[in-house]
Amino acid sequence: MIQLPNSVKAYFHASNEEQLASFLEAFKEDAHVFDFNREFNDLEAIRDWCKSDILGLHVRFDITDAWEQDGAYAVITSLDGEFDKTNLPDPLLLIHTFKLSDSKIQELHVTLP
């Protein structure tokens, strides 16, 4: 597994430790998050997404694989939390694909593998 940039590591650490301020510090002011078919286009929207979909559900990410390709970082995680797991695979895996600018997250795509 590759060494991940600090902002990517901070994203997962802050999520797992439920540290909203540290989570937001990993992102650029004009960052974009694409979470399946939903889009969040600035820090205020990303903060609301984090509070409801990550911190509010006590989501925990466990990194299982990571690689860099064409300047983007892809990270496969298994996740758990206090959300409805009905009909979801076990373990539930997600791919987080990060594009950075000035060492911060400019764009994040969250998808199924």
Automatic annotation (TrEMBL):
UniProt superkingdom: Bacteria
Pfam families found in the cross-reference section: SnoaL_2
Signal peptide bounds: none
Boundaries of every SnoaL-like domain copy: 8-107
The protein's name in its UniProt record: Nuclear transport factor 2 family protein
The organism of origin for this protein: Paenibacillus albus
